[in-house]
Amino acid sequence: MYNHEEKGNERVKTIFSRLNVLLLVVFLVFSAMIFRLSYVQIVKGANFEKEATSKSDKKVPILAMRGNIYDRNGNLIVHSQGSFTAVFQEKDYMNEAYYVNLATKLEKILAGTKKEDLLKKMDVGYEFKNGKVERTMRMTSKFLEKDLKYDLSQKEIAYLAEHRSELDGITVVTKPIRVYDPNQVAVQAIGYVRPFNVAENQGNEYYLARKDSYLPNQMVGYDGIERSYEDQLRGENGYRLYQVAANQTILQQIKEVPPKRGNNLYLTIDERVQLDTRNFIKDFLPKLRGTGKNAYNARNAYAVAIEVKTGRVIAMVSYPEYDPNIWTSGPDKETYEANQYSFPNGTINSAPHDVRPKTGDDAALETYKHPASILPSGSVLKPATVLTGLAEKVITPDDTWSDPGAYRYGSSAGDVIHNDSNHNYGLLTPQRALKFSSNTYMARVGKALRDKLGKDTIFTYQKYLRAFGLGIKTGIDLPNESSGKEDFLVMNAKYGPTAAMVQASFGQQGRYTTMQLAQYTATLASKGVRYRPQLVDRIVDNNGKVVQSFKPEVLSKLNLPDEYWRVVHQGMVMVTTEQGGTGVTAFAGFPYHVAAKTGTSQQDIYVPSSVDFSKKVTWHKANKINNGVFISFAPAEDPKLAVAVIVPEGGYGSQSAGMIARAIYDSYNKHVGLGPIDKPYVPATAAPNTTKK
Description:
The chain is an alpha+beta fold. The chain is built from 22 helices and 27 strands. It is elongated, with a radius of gyration of 37 Å.
């Protein structure tokens, strides 16, 4: 019994011992769990809470396609299309050696690229200069996607995909790019696009005010129509909304809002007349230079054709032109230097002489040796002088005056005005004075105005000129329009009203743009009704619905008796129809009467000793040149088209600008018609035509 009890006690002790071990193990396990939970909640709680709640929504933009641009008849000039694009995205581990090595590799992969340009486009704070890599300032955010080359070939796409690990940071994406007609239709008027960050970095106020509406690398209108109608062309970006984790892993797509394509523009420009005019100029200028006749440096020309009764611009040529497609990926240094002097629109602002093939300081200095596109307008202002004289009653429609051959207006030996080649034109009426382009007759009118109106004469003359749009902006829907130069105001302040009025009377004291001269001519033709020049006929959405149309807009009216307008119109018709008229040769055989005025403005050219204006620079007179200017409208009896042409250093206006004007009328008459019932233009019937001839 004793043994039995003893054995029972030992068994109980063993069980308790095992239970104690088990309890200890359980205690340790629970202690470890409690410790771990405490560590997770107390020590790591904040981190895990942040991680748990760091799921966020990320909006990935989808760029909108810009709208198309058509000519008045629906011919496609500008459009957008998708392009396979090589882009670079910088990563934290990358350094100078990696950037240089990557650019060097890509030069061999991406046809037509150079490592210097690629490194610059990568915008990583380094740049090749004189063969060496130097630090430079970043132009955009470090982690922004940088476009390196558009329109990749299938071979390039395949290679980049196969060698992805060797080319870390390079990917291929699809992006919308702007494509311009290879025929280069009115390139300066249409303008071009650049990345938004370029516009922002250059302080463009329009885009700075809209910073939140654009992506840094989104293409925006930078000049011309592209800039003026940015709000209509740009469209509306879409987006995809993703839920992402803290490590930027996409968890799910929540929403997608497709982009809305921009609206389409139909211009007033007629592509046929535009290209005919440009092509004529391109062929004509070398021939003009070959004739001598003070035109051996004629390399530029500016022409505007505008409909008299509407203000619609039919043609607008600033020559030389350039290929706007160079802006698609950003021109390299050589391309930019080769084209930079043809970027400005010389029909509305100052454009320099075509100095190619010179570049750098040599090119900059060469520009000073030649006139820009805004130059003394010369005798084309004489119709305005005659009208001012009639309106202020210092001459009458029946006025006659015997030309003395030289008109003296002051006591100084230099206060004398001569006609071209010292001609004496005999008995002059206002009409004959315009026909022969008499300087002496105009000087007489200017002096008579001074004698009647006194010291404020020049301001009265200015009032009439501005009624024609001279000395003020025309209001055309393009950026950066110049108001011209009223040099007679400076002369008035320096030499007094008599000298200023006499010199201004025959056009030597006013410099105006070709667009201003075209508006002036159309106002002459319409007997004082001044229209705003119009480049866009209508705006259409992608369903073909017209969202905005543009009607002719009258800016001002100069109310004068019909008899005064008749006198001026008669004189301008005599310029092209009567023997001795200065424009007879240019319009020989033309089927309609053309009212015109030639101009040959003389200009002194002063050149600086250096283009480094941080140092002392001296100026000296280098040359005296003649510029060709021509204004006209037709048919004279029922004006339909007004044309203005400027050829810097073109010599006589009749032999240079006049010949270009004739080519414009020939083209317009062929394609549209100058007669009252010829090929009427009905905007509503024009339909998009995306097939180029």
